[in-house]
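Convert to structure. Protein one:
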Amino acid sequence: MLSFITSFFMIAIAEIGDKTQLIALSFSTKYKPLKVLAGVFIGALAVLLLSVLIGGHLSAFIPMNILKIIVGFTFIGFGILTLKGEHCDKEGINKVNKFGPILTVAIAFFLAELGDKTQLATISLAAQYQSFFGVWLGSALGIVAADAVAIAVGVIAGKKLPQKTIKFISAGIFILFGILIFVEVFTK
């Protein structure tokens, strides 16, 4: 139980102001809040399961710089798709986003968390407590709790700001994080 409580609070605090929290905020201006929260939860469960299972050995299989470059391109791609907007065909089916909101958020969240401070903190907590489920679920729920606040802010902003402004801000957030990841990778 201690591993769960410690993981929950440590990860919730670490998530505050994190890029994944801003991504959740951005998605919440576009999609229904419960779908964004579900996507965050699925993405968090998946990436933190990976963290707990293989811990620090991920970079032994795929170099962290390669993972970060993939994430950078993915963020820039999300930004471009956001600027491009969603186009529907005659039946009203969204042609840009074939995955739907939950899977789109989950994929973006999973990729954004790779090598992130909350993932690294989860690896450390798993090593310290040797409690698979306590650390995994505590960390995932900590992320969801912190991101729920960001989603609420996004819902409020979505009602107050013009849609065009939201589109540019959201696209800017994705592209900025993609560029920052490239800067981080190529300046080390």
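Protein two, convert as well:
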Amino acid sequence: MTHRVRGAFGRLAAAAFATVLASALFAGSLAAQGSTGKIEGTVTDQAGVPIANAQVFIVGTSYGALTSDKGYYFINNVPAGEITLRAQFIGYAPTEKTGVRVLAGQ
């Protein structure tokens, strides 16, 4: 093989490898989207007043968020299935909600 043919073959092989790698990464991200969901809500006190900066997390995991000044929170990429949510803030008793169902893609 001449130098020119080897160079062209190398570029073609590199392009093919890059295409396969990109396809695999894209397919992996689509698969991950299909098995996770999102949790969102609002944390309020007994009078219905939003609680800012409350901690909301999924028990037994590292997934969590802080509420906004309006008590709103969201947690992305939560594995699908049933979970237990816990909200806590200084001065209030922690509250848990069990049996929260997370649907994939929602």
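Residues 59 and 103 are 17 Å apart (CA to CA). Confidence is low (pLDDT under 50) at residues 16-32.
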